[in-house]
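Handoff note, outgoing to incoming analyst
You'll be picking up this chain. Sequence as last confirmed:
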Amino acid sequence: MLYTIPIFSQLEGVMKHVLNFFHSSIGLPWAWSIVATTVVVRMILVPLTIRQIHSMQNLQKHAPQMKEIQKKYKQDRQKQNEELMKFYRENNINPAASCLPMLAQLPVFIALYYTLKHFNENFGIKPNSHVDLSFLHFIPSISDHTTSHWGGFVLLFVYVASQMASSFFMMTTTDKMQRVLFMVMPLFFVFVIAHFPAGLVLYWVTTNLWTVGQGLITRRLVGKTPAPVIERRSSRTPPKDDGSSGNGAKSEAQPPQPPSASQRPRQVRRKKKRTSRR
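Most recent structure output, in case you need it:
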């Protein structure tokens, strides 16, 4: 089992001390302890979040050029990937930077899952005893499955709404089908997360609300990055005049001059063949 791996037991031990600090030392209820833990984690991840925002802006800025590369090499996927990687290096784009905050939260997610799974043993709580959950008083225990009580469905509804809002603010693609997929995905994922402890869903709801607030602040301060205009020229498009000539004056288009007599093509007259009469 995964829990037999030492790293997972160590992560559970760290999360146990963090939750116990907020609950016993500061006096927060267990639900607020999870919220406080989530806020601390997201504050630590602020540098990675800034890199994520910059990466998203670069992707939006260079999206037209990347589409041109994909169209140009759509028949050769290997060449397309090579050209895209070359384009990323030339423009200092790191597509993986947008996933760094999510990957960094994975150990926290695993640690909280095992801590809540062994919640009664970790904190010496007797079964069926009252646990102070503050604003989550409609849920018997944060260690129970989310759907074990009617209050868990309320929490799942908040999760879906917050996940959709989070996906909307952090979405980088302009493709309509991909945008619809990102917005519908929480509806399918809710069937998986419904079997998790309620405290774990509370953690995810809190981090989604943080992401929504982060997106609102980013859009207000930074605004939308304008995409560069790509000028398409054909063979009939005249070259642009740079506005300068040898004397520094603007050059004007001269009308075509008729060819001189020496330059005209020589016309050859063919002699008509005379038919002989017999």
